[in-house]
Amino acid sequence: MTLLDAPKSTSVPATDGRAGSPGRRRAGRAGQVLRWTALRLLALAVLLVAWQAVVAAGVWPRVLVPAPAEVWRALVRASTVHDGVRGVSGHLLVEHLAVSLRRIALGTGYAALAGVPLGLLIGVVRPLAVILEPAVTFLRTLPPLAYLSLLVIWFGIDESPKIWLLVIAALPPITAATAAAVRGVPGDLVEAARALGAGPVSVLLAVRLPAALPEILTGIRIAVGIAYTSVVAAETINGVPGIGGMIRDAQRYNQTDLVIAGLLAIGLSGILLDALFRGVERAAVPWRGRA
Length: 291
Known about the structure:
Oligomer: single chain
Strand order of the largest sheet: 1-2
Number of helices: 10
Helix content: over 70%
Low-confidence stretches: 8-19
Radius of gyration: 27 Å
Shape: globular
Mean pLDDT: 83
Order of helices and strands: HHEEHHHHHHHH
Distance between the termini: 55 Å
């Protein structure tokens, strides 16, 4: 038998099991999302059961720790018109929340407009960093209530001190994140741009800023969270409508159920807002986290 007489084998394309893999990956991701959702719901159910058990055992007076059902009724009462009364203090819960979110958006927006350029300058110009970094650190360590009284003296009790307080609270994290991100840009990118004839301004805007964008967006996201935690302090002075003002008024009359309902509204809206920023971050810097 010669090689010519050898039986010819029919070659079949080898399969590595990757056919249809995108569909399987989507199904796997969907299953993972369902599992995580079920785990979160289970944790929430355990928390509610433990909360109800503490209330039923009478560990604390009901005026201090109301039952979950009482908090739910307060949440519904604050969100509807009942007995001719519109929500709380003449405004629905969603209106209180919308006013607070507007203040947070303005405060964080102004802070970003000032903090990003300031951080770029601090990260690039060393003499400015020596002068301004201590000031940024000083502001970052101040609690909001420490300068709220001063802002009220300067700007009165209307909207201005609230917005200024949120600006001051949100500015340091944006500035610090921007400066650190600019300094962390690989030197090879900067040298390559200079070799191609780019000037200092072009290097800053076309190389350093895009490379630092992921960390800048993270700093803005952190600043939004800080502004959210500061809004209750900002709204202790003439803060109605506003979720912080609503909580303050409820605290004055020992309406613990309404206070907890307001805290839940803040927390849930904060989760949604953070998810929105994560989506913006994924759309703006899709390369982040990829090799």
